[in-house]
Design a protein that fits this description.
Blueprint: H1 3-7, H2 22-27, E1 31-32, H3 35-42, H4 59-65, H5 79-93, E2 105-115, E3 118-132, E4 135-144, H6 190-200, E5 203-215, E6 221-228, E7 235-244, H7 247-257
Parallel strand pairs: 1-7
Antiparallel strand pairs: 2-3, 2-5, 3-4, 5-6, 6-7
Helix pairs in contact: 4-5
């Protein structure tokens, strides 16, 4: 999502050009085949053969840097390179380990729906939850994108101000479009809208087009992992968006992601 870009804080520039850095070129020689492989490499649990331990204690740093979409760091581009450096130091310094069961991971499934005989795209947000005992599963936690469908979410319905004297006989007007009669103090998130439309049969799921993953576990940072299907090097599931933010900014991003 482009929301990450809105939260980005410019990093302090340093005299550094990653685009011509031999180490960067070597670290770009990789493919990350799955989300699980991404997390294992981030934790340095699985180290690919092209990353060598030179005894300097930089093994995990190299593993994390190799997970970035390094095409974002062209010759002379130092701001993003500096942010990557600071992010990596923060993750290692706080001993952040990624696990699919850890809170703070959000999967954003970009899905195609049929709505009033028209194809639309909506995003479903899934989280990994403990269902019972040792059983874990993905569950839908939110949705976003409904505002782009042209869906009428106005509160343009009303019941007569004197209808209470007639035992609210006008309540029948509120069905089936009860959302148009809701109070100003009531808040319907986008998942509630989606659920109501799906149950009514107006909205039909057609398929999932793509998935991105949002990670919020590293203090002061948000990052997104998506698929980069290139033919040669630096391909697969890589970090594309990296943003610095405060805890307040991070919560605002999560709320917007979940369509609250």
């Amino acid at each position: 999502m482009t929301l990450l870009l809105l939260l980005t804080v410019p990093a302090t520039l340093r005299a550094q050009s990653w685009g011509s850095n031999p180490e960067l070129n070597a670290l770009a020689n990789n493919m990350v085949k799955s989300l699980n492989e991404f997390m294992h490499r981030f934790n340095a649990d699985e180290v690919p053969p092209f990353i060598t331990d030179d005894g300097s204690g930089n093994l995990r740093r190299k593993c994390i840097v190799s997970l970035f979409d390094l095409e974002q760091v062209p010759n002379g581009e130092s701001a993003l390179a500096d942010r990557i450096t600071d992010f990596t130091a923060t993750a290692i310094g706080n001993d952040i380990r990624l696990d699919i069961t850890s809170p703070g991971l959000y999967a954003e499934a970009r899905c195609r729906f049929s709505y009033k005989k028209k194809d639309i795209m909506l995003n479903l947000i899934l989280v990994y939850e403990n269902f019972k005992e040792d059983y874990w599963c993905w569950r839908i936690a939110g949705a976003n994108g409904l505002e782009a469908t042209g869906l009428d979410t106005t509160r343009n319905g009303y019941i007569s101000p004197v209808d209470h004297a007639m035992s609210f006989t006008e309540l029948e007007k509120a069905f089936p479009n009860t959302s148009h009669f809701r109070s100003a103090d009531s808040h319907m998130d986008q998942l509630s809208w989606l659920s109501a439309l799906a149950q009514s049969g107006v909205l039909k799921f057609e398929g999932c087009e793509a998935v991105v993953y949002h990670f919020t576990q590293v203090p002061g940072y948000l990052f997104t992992v998506s698929m980069h299907p290139r033919k040669n090097i630096n391909t697969g599931w890589l970090i594309h968006d990296l943003a610095e933010t405060t805890d307040i900014g991070k919560q605002a991003f999560i709320n917007q992601l979940l369509g609250r």
